[in-house]
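Section 4.2 – Deliverable D4.2 (structural model, holo form)

The reporting period included a commitment to supply a predicted holo structure for the target in complex with 3-methyl-2-oxobutanoic acid. Inputs used:
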Amino acid sequence: MVYISDNDSKIISSTENKFKKITTLRLQEMKDANIKISCLTGYDALIGKILDESGIDLILIGDSVANVVQGRETTIPVTIEEIIYHTKAVLRGTKRPLIVSDMPFMSYQVSADSAFENAGRIMKESGCEALKLEGASLSVLNAVERLNEAGIPCMGHLGLTPQSINKFGSYRARGKDSDEAKKILEDAKNLENAGAFAVVLEKIPYKLAEEVTNSLKIPTIGIGAGPHCDGQILVYSDMLGLTIDFRPRFVRQYANLNEIIKNAFSQYCDDVKNGKFPSVEESY
Ligand code: KIV
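Output (C-alpha cells):
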C-alpha cells in the first residue's frame, strides 16, 4: 500500500519511509513539501486498526465522542477520564498515525497551571502524542506555550469551536464577516507564535482558510474549510454514512454503512427467528 504518492517524494524517498511513524515533525515536513495530511477521528481499537491500515496520517480522539459514541447533544460533558479511556483503546489498534487527543471543556481554560496538570495526566495515562485545545484566548495561548515548553505538542482549533456552543448559540459557519475573519487570522498567528504545531480550521470560508494557510508556517487542518488547507479531517462516522441525521455540506459520504449494517442486523434477526441461524455447520 502506498500512503504518499511517488510524485510527492520530496521528503519520502524509500518505500520504508512510507510506513514510518507520523510525528509532529513529519507533519511539518509534509506541509513544507506540499504533501496533504489525512486525518480522521477515532474512538476505539477496532476503528483505530482499520484507520491505521488505511494509511491515515493522524487520528484525533475528539470530544465528538460525545455525539458519536455517547449520544449527547454537545461535547461539553466529556471528561478527562473518558478521553483517556478512548485514547488508550485507539492506541491498542494503531502504530503509524500521530495520535492526538482533545482536551475536554474546562480542562485547560481555568489556568495555565491546571491545563498543565490535566495535559500531563492525559498524556501520561493515555499515551497520546499531542493534545488539541479550542480557541485562542489569552489563557489558551498561555496554556499552549506552557505545554509546548514542557514537551507536550499542542494543536489549535479555530473557527467553529463546538465547546463554545453555549456562547454562540449555533453551529453556523464562522469568519464570514471581516471582523470575525480578521480575528481568526490573528488567532491562528498567535497560536503559531505560542508554539502550536498545527491548527484545525472548522467551518470557515475557503478563501479565509487559504489566507490562514498561506500566512502560517505550521500546517492547517480543515473541516468544512475548503481545499486549500494543508490537511483535512472529518468525523469518521459522518464520512462512513453511519450518522444519518447530520449531513452538512462539508461531509463527503464515502460509504453508506448505516444501511449496510441495518440490513445485516435485520437479516440476522430474521434468521434467528426463523431458525436459520445457526446451522449445524456453525455448531460444535
Ligand atoms: O472533536 C472532534 O471530532 C473535532 C474535529 C471535528 C476536528 O474537534
